Amino acid sequence: MTGIVLDGIGKTFDGTRIFDDLSLSIRSGELIVFVGPSGCGKSTLLRLIAGLETATEGRIEIDGRDVTQSEPHDRGLSMVFQSYALYPHMTVQQNIAFALHTERLPRDEISARVAEAARILKIEPYLDRKPKALSGGQRQRVAIGRAIVREPKAFLFDEPLSNLDAALRADTRVEIAELHKRLGATMLYVTHDQVEAMTLADRIVVLKAGRIMQIGTPHDLYTAPANTFVAQFIGSPRMNLLPCEQMDSTRIRLPGGSIEIPSLPCRPAQIGIRPEDLNLVAPTEGRLRGQVVLTEYLGADRCVHIDLGEVRVTLRDAGSSPKIARDGEEVGLAFDPRRAHYFDAAGDAINVISVEAA
Amino acid sequence: MKRASDILRILVFLAAALILNFPVIATLVTSLKSNAEIARNPGLWVEAPTLGNYAAIFDAAGRFDVWTFLNSSLVAAAIGTILPIIVCFPAAWVMARRGVGAAILFPATVNLRTLPLIVFAIPLYIMYQSLGLLDTRLGLGLILAVVNLPIALLILVNTIRDLPVDLEEAARMDGASLPTLLLRIVLPLCRPGLVTVFILGFITAWNEFLFGLMLTTRDAVPITVGASFFFASGGGGVEWGVAAAIIVIAAAPPVVLGLFMYRHIGGSMTTGAVKG
């Protein structure tokens, strides 16, 4: 159970600056998810913590000990690779036991620990098989088994689910969450999938081009995104962003209509509205007017895509909604301005506490 | 109709196989003929098969002891094959993974193979003379190792480059020291490359003639050079039957090795290591 502290991390790779003065503190027992689009540096960050890459500047501390220059195995961490990286010439048993052999543990302790890991992950029937005789899901379990058997200070997961099919991915996600509860261990998890991030994380670190855009609980990120990047990255379908223009002291013009906000702290340049915060109303009633382009029926939900002149928005409501939205139909859109998100020209959130509905 | 085309196809295959393997077949057949029959019957059919030529070879003693030739070839070829693997494996890993020597040393070493071997002859002879390596199996093995080194390095560097780096990173996370990493993880995964190097190297070393001729005289004469002694062993003209038989004996070990090891060449060790 370990806290991990990154202090002023810089990393240059072949002359390219990847991180600049990145600082982050991870609490003991926390499951923290690094999420971001590909190339944002999330895997590199994990590899820096693992010791597979060396930071150009800054300090990494694990449990209060400076490990910036330590070898990977001296950091007491386990890693689950995206590719699983199982040793193909060894049986499952030997794969899991390998790290314990390098630690020169007594034989009976090794077999006891391997048996315990196999029991937790339900891979006992495959212990004598080679990795090539296993399915993708089974290989994934062996890779996790290899990580837990070392009883590490923290677990590092590098996109562990991305090679599994959709159904297995959802199941394994739940298993990893259960494993985290059961072991109470610190876990660092890298993914590009915001659903994985939202469902697993105690806290999420959103990265973009090597910079931390926001750190917070899934709830924080969803309800109070710090900028338009986080606003659009978290949540599916993504948040609608509407350019806006101040008409007078209380009115804001939006594509397809306008809203009245009596006390605006400063001038927003964009308004963000989650698809589920938009309501379908008669064309004359709503704050905004537009034309239905397409409806996607998803069973429990449906997504209605609506053209508001130059921008297109997505609305999500219940699949069983009695309101019919035919393609090409003129509709009105209602929303509560208190649930909307306001951003300045740079894309940073404006504190919305003082914004009240007209 | 189908049968006729099948028969035709088999005939064509047979003809092609016969033409391509004619030298081998002719040698094999000649080795089973008596001298009288060789003079009388140049065809591929043996009228009275005999092992007399083989018996003559194994009966010969002293300077013509075929067991000494075979033994020398085996020892020298083993040294010339295994030594480059021992030397090149760690070097190949460092070149492939750390990039050390990848820019100059690697291409320079591989290019050694393009030099005609005769270039080494005179300096090598003088060096061996002063080191006492002339006419020793070790001396012959060492130069065969130099002959095999470039191809061994080339194959092993490429084999290691093709291994997923993840496996080595996983081993580092698992606390493997560098020797453990190389011996327990990388070496077993390189098996297809190692087998290829071993077979190609052994065949090259076994069939080598130039250095065998130049550097050995009596104690360490390899079978390739020893075989040539038999051509004139009758004193007068060439004894074709004995010559054919010694060629068969000399060629057999690498052929047998190739047949048994062939299925180990190529193929991937890393199936199941990464991805689903």
TrEMBL record, chain A:
Record-level GO cellular component terms: ATP-binding cassette (ABC) transporter complex, substrate-binding subunit-containing; maltose transport complex
InterPro entries reported for this sequence: AAA+_ATPase, ABC_transporter-like_ATP-bd, ABC_transporter-like_CS, ABC_transpr_MalK-like, ABC_transpr_MalK/UgpC-like, Mo/tungstate-bd_C_term_dom, NA-bd_OB-fold, P-loop_NTPase
Keywords: ATP-binding, Nucleotide-binding, Transport
Tagged with keyword Nucleotide-binding: yes
Domain ABC transporter, first and last residues per copy: 4-234
Transmembrane segments: none
NCBIfam families in the cross-refs: PRK11650.1
Family indicated by similarity: Belongs to the ABC transporter superfamily.
Protein name: Carbohydrate ABC transporter ATP-binding protein (CUT1 family)
Organism: Palleronia aestuarii
UniProtKB/TrEMBL annotation, chain B:
Source organism of this protein record: Palleronia aestuarii
Transmembrane segments: 74-96, 103-126, 138-160, 181-206, 240-262
Name used for this protein in its record: Multiple sugar transport system permease protein
Gene Ontology biological process terms from the UniProt entry: transmembrane transport
PROSITE patterns: ABC_TM1 (PS50928)
Domain of life: Bacteria
Membrane topology recorded in Swiss-Prot or TrEMBL: Multi-pass membrane protein
Subcellular locations according to the entry: Cell membrane
InterPro entries recorded: BP-dep_ABC_trans_perm (IPR050901), MetI-like (IPR000515), MetI-like_sf (IPR035906)
SUPFAM superfamilies for this protein: MetI-like (SSF161098)
Keyword Membrane: yes
